[in-house]
Amino acid sequence: MTQPNAHRSPFTRRSFLSLAAAGGMTATLAACGSGSSPRDAGGGEPAAATGDGGAGGYDGPEVDLKFWNGFTGGDGPTMKALVDQFNSEHANIAVTMTTMQWADYYSKLPTAVTSGNGPDVGIMHVDSVATNAARNVIQPLDDVATALELAEGDFAPVPWQAGIYDGKRFAIPLDVHPLGFYYNKDVMESAGLDPEAPPTDAASYMDALESLKSAGVEGHWASPFPFTGGLSLQSLIYQFGGSLFNEDGTSVTWGEDPAVQALTWWVDLINEGYSPAKVDQDADYIALKNGKSAFNWNGIWQINDLKQTDIGWGVAPLPNIGGSAAAWAGSHQFVLPVQKSADENKAQASRVFLNWISEQSQSWAEAGQVPARNSARESEEFTALEEQSALAAQIDVLRFPPTVPGIADSMSEFDKALNAATLGGTDPATALADSAGRAQKILDDNAKKYGG
User: Fold this and answer.
1) What count of other Cβ atoms lies within 10 Å of the Cβ of residue 383?
2) Which of 15, 392, 395, 427 meets the CB 3.0–4.6 Å disulfide criterion with 102?
3) What's the domain range around 426?
4) Residue 91: per-residue pLDDT
């Protein structure tokens, strides 16, 4: 998912596009562990633990833990520093962090778990949790939640609920990373707009785009790619009162009228001259930085990149275009992969590490994330992070897909609809209806595959 400065992003464009090609933000796992059913791909049993979820610490013999993640961007050094700090404070636990592209991570993890060479601790995007739980790649974490007396009231509700599959908790939320509204103050001012008063709704947004157009500026470049166009379109669908799927994830709903309204609004940015007709990958963000456009909907990970520029810029919650405040978001969640051979010492030490890292939300926020923990998000230290705090204001209106195994596989069809309407000139209603029909078949097939 990158952006011009990939090393400062929690994703890279290559990894995002690889994942998107496989379906949303989740790499397809069907090809991994062939010959095993979706429910036994892990090939092992959850490692035994004391039952205190790591709350009591670890005083056993020295153990080495493997920690895998995809933090290849600017958040990688922050996580590595936290791991180093943990190691310095725990003489009998040595954690080795291995970082790889997210697409590689998701393709390697099931096979590694099956062969007994998987990590002790991992990180997953929220829409990967159910699939890996169904395949027995990750183990339940109810003991961790119970030991720490964690409850929904301690976290933002959406990422907390997203870690539950089949009545069990399989993930502990670390953060959320929402889409936000970036604006170039210099360009706004040159068009006679107040740079300290960015538009907040459909009327003020269109008025601003008209002023920019009169000044010769294409104010909001409409990307036809999953990033950022797909994330923007998802947000718009929610704002127009629609959804991508029904509540239990059994039906595709992006062919309905709210989605048609959303995609029509997006395509009209081009038709009305507010955007170029063909926007290359990442060109929308580059245009914002280069002063060729004023507005860009992008992820929270761009904050640290823009801080290193000399342009005047700001960031705010997404404008409410459709009438209902809403925004796309992702979430990193802690998981414990299934172990082929139970090791009580490693099981306990892994939980101690997970607990410790999850308590360092403030340090993690400085890498460009919004803490999932309410206490960290409400702290003075976090509120002092002006830009992150601004996007955290969306916490109650962030939207994730239902926690259903394989649901992200169908998102490749959603991306095709965006591309067909934005680049190919296909009528939005037709593009969405056709893609929804194809996606429904994928959803139905996955329901059978995963035992739904």
Assistant:
1) 12
2) 15
3) 178-329+406-449
4) 96
In a domain, 58, yes or no: yes
Is the pLDDT at 45 greater than 60? The verdict is no
Which domain CATH number covers 299? 3.40.190.10
DSSP per-residue codes, 386-430: HHHHHHHTTGGGEE---S-TTGGGGHHHHHHHHHHHHTS---HHH
Beta bridge partners of 315: 182
Kindly tell me if the per-residue pLDDT of 379 is higher than 80: yes
Cα 240–Cα 241–Cα 244 angle in degrees, nearest 5: 95
Instruction: Judge whether 13 lies within some domain.
Output: yes
What dihedral angle (degrees, nearest 10) is formed by the CA atoms of 335, 338, 343, 348?
20
For 298-352, write each residue's pLDDT tens digit. 999 999 899 999 999 999 999 999 999 999 999 999 999 999 998 999 999 999 9
**Does 425 share its domain with 292?**
yes
Rounded Cα gap, residues 42 and 112, in angstroms = 9
Same domain membership, residue 340 and residue 205: no
DSSP single-letter state for residue 292: S
What amino acid occupies position 316? A
- In-domain check, residue 182: yes
What is the value of pTM for the model shown? Answer: 0.88
Q: Are strands 121-125 and 332-335 parallel, antiparallel or unpaired?
A: antiparallel
Give the number of domains in the chain: 2
Question: Is 291 in the same domain as 435?
Answer: yes
Q: Are residues 161 and 205 in the same domain?
A: no
The H helix count followed by the E strand count for the chain is 19, 13
